[in-house]
Amino acid sequence: MTENAPRPATGARRPWLIVNPRSGGGKARRFRIAEHARTLGAQVYLIDHSLRQDLATLARRAVDDGADLLGVAGGDGTQALVAEVAAQCGLPFVVIPAGTRNHFAMDLGLDREDPSAALEALTDGVELRVDLGYAGERVFVNNVSFGAYAALVHDPAYRDDKLGTAARVLPEFLARHEGPELVVRTGLLTVHGPDAVLVSNNPYQWDDPVGLGRRAHLDSGLLGVLAARAETPADAARPRGGRPHGLTRLATPDDVVVHADVPVLPAGLDGEAVSLPAPVRCRISPRALRVWVPRPRSDAGRAGRPPGRPAKRWVG
Fold first, then answer.
1. What pTM was estimated for this model as a whole?
2. Burial of 106: CB neighbours in 10 Å, binned 0-12, 13-18, 19+
3. What torsion, rounded to 10 degrees, do the Cα atoms 167, 170, 174, 179 define?
4. What pLDDT, in 10s, does the model give residues 171-201?
5. Nearest-CA neighbor of 106 among 252, 205, 37?
6. What would the pLDDT profile of 33-44 be if each residue is shown by its tens digit?
7. Rounded distance between C-alpha atoms, residue 102 and residue 164, angstroms
8. Neighbouring-strand partners of residue 248
């Protein structure tokens, strides 16, 4: 048995679940997530979008009141907020993929077409240990982006059409070199003036230039780094040698620091538009999060499998 092999997950007596009824176009309502969770003994908190609510504070209050498992039915941004509390408190965390794309759930091997199936983790699950990323004091389960990649997240059309928005925004943004002047430093590497930067919780597959695809691991203890620069829209859109022109790419256990010529840097954090004080120090917290997933999974073993070989490192 490997050190990070899935372990049986049982014994939660007071599970607590946040449900975002609007996420994914109302997916939680369609699949009756709140009702099913209550029948399994979970206390459910429905987000009221007419009120300003600090979800991390609500989760901490739930722990103070005796919750011994935290979960979220919603998108990746909401997942990250509550996952941070679960990690800090050493509690298990359950992901219900009720968002639009649910990248974190995908890499956990969960069924994104039937989010209610993830509730089986409460009664018949296994526990995985996965990494968490930090951008300053903010947790991310997928990635944090700057420059052109952040411009995608800040574009109003991004939430409903990620691929179409990327095809429209990236080439022009990269060619015009808009936005703050960035410098990326990690270990002995410095990248000056990238137009787009994406730092991910574990590296994306090598054929994925904008972080919309899969990660082979969630427990490698490595940050993925993409830093891109292009001189023309054609450069931004045209791959060379199997990868986009002007791309620096690596996987690293070291902190990644993104410097800027502005005090506050627009960013995309797990698909949410945020602003972060510059410079932004990104780091990985290895196997910080205990995730419970159903025993039968569509991609069993992926996230719980430790890295099978040293991470590739190259700069292009």
1. 0.84
2. buried
3. 160
4. 666 656 567 999 999 999 999 999 889 999 9
5. 205
6. 999 999 999 999
7. 18
8. 227
The residue to which tokens 């002047």 are assigned = 181
| HEC-encoded secondary structure of the chain | CCCCCCEEECCCCCEEEEECCCHHHHHHHHCCHHHHHHHCCCEEEECCCCCCCCHHHHHHHHHHCCCCEEEEEECHHHHHHHHHHHHHHCCEEEEEECCCCCHHHHHCCCCCCCHHHHHHHHCCEEEEEEEEEEECCEEECCEEEEEHHHHHHHCCCCCCCHHHHHHHHHHHHHHHCCCCCEEEEECCEEEECCCEEEEEECCECCCCCCCCCCECCCCCCCEEEEEECCCCHHHHHCEECCEECCEEEEEECCCEEEEECCCEEEEEECCEEEEEECCEEEEEEEEEEEEEEECCCCCCCCCCCCCCCCCCEECC
In the numeric block, which tokens belong to residue 111? 């069924």
Structure token pair of residue 312: 């590739």
